[in-house]
Design brief:
Layout: E1 12-15, H1 16-19, H2 37-47, E2 51-55, H3 56-59, H4 66-83, E3 89-91, H5 110-129, E4 134-138, E5 143-144, H6 152-173, E6 178-182, E7 191-192, H7 197-204, E8 213-215, H8 219-224, H9 229-238, E9 246-247, H10 266-279, E10 284-286, H11 296-322, H12 324-333, H13 348-356, H14 361-366, H15 371-382
Parallel strand pairs: 1-2, 1-10, 2-3, 3-4, 4-6, 6-8, 9-10
Antiparallel strand pairs: 5-7
Length: 386
Amino acid sequence: MDPYAPTPADRFTFGLWTVGNPGRDPFGEPTRAPVDPTYSVARLAELGAYGVNFHDHDLVPDGTPTAERDRIVARFKRALEEHGLVVPMATTNLFRDPLFKDGAFTSADARVRNYALHKTMRAIDLGAELGARTYVFWGGREGAEVDAGGKLLDALQWYRDSLDYLCEYVREQGYGMRFALEPKPNEPRGHAFLPTVGSALGFIATLSYPDMVGLNPELAHETMAGLSFPHALAAAIDAGKLFHVDLNDQIMARFDQDLRFGAENLKTAFFTVMLLEEHYDGPRHFDAHALRTEDEEGVWAFALGCMRTYKILAEKAERFRGDPEIQAAIASYRVDDPEGTWPPRFDAAHAASLKGREFDLTSLRARGPGLERLDQLTVELLLGVR
């Protein structure tokens, strides 16, 4: 039995837009044919996936008449039931249509903002109909190249107004959904609003229903900004805001590549898996796509590769936690204070005592924490020699 073969118990999910990516890029036409959503469901089930996610137009093209929309949704439901997949998350495409060229919820045109609400409510209905409990907002066009219009503070308020309104809508409908914001620093806009996990956390605290809104951090997006994804993930976990996660890979400072999980940054992927395995029980969503060079079978090799790499790294995380030498190095790195407790409890007497304490600064300055050795042990574990 292959220990790295994916199963639904692993809770791996893909978007219709990921395995359905036709290989188009800004400089070239598609290299693969479109994929029917029900076919994607069948193939993902064969590979051992747990679920599939979608933008509204991934399943129901914009402008579809009601009767045809209902037929498409019924057919998709049958495919999910037949193959045992679920829809944990849904989202809205608010970036493709030319009317969103200067933003959706942050457009300076109030008519566009109202249309964005209209489109999103209909998409939320679709997601709820198919069982989605998390709704992701990636503000692909929420940003600017030119600041002379002076909308920066207004745009944040319009964004806030929109999310507050949609929270009210979900509450009134009784859907029980949570929202997850997906930060990204740039592309397709020159500068995006809410570019990082930290900025999104600050914004969430200003909403009318902050408990309903969390984060969907993406490995590639934080990496594009030159930041550490495990650090961003830890911030989301620490704030109790990791509602969903997007896994892929990325070369720093490049365009959004959405590479196969683990394809470039194995240590980043490893510490990501370690955090998720210890602190997150939701779906592991792969927001990535096969290279443009690949044919259809390359797409399914890509999807299987994402899941296998995650499982391999999860096993290595278990080995890391059980390796006596690594754990001894970690224990040596963390030093207790024999003359004090942590965390300290503040009172006037304790503060006076701490201010009057004499520290052995020479010894503290001279101590080496052993991080070079600990890092090398980690690398050796990842290389398979431990």
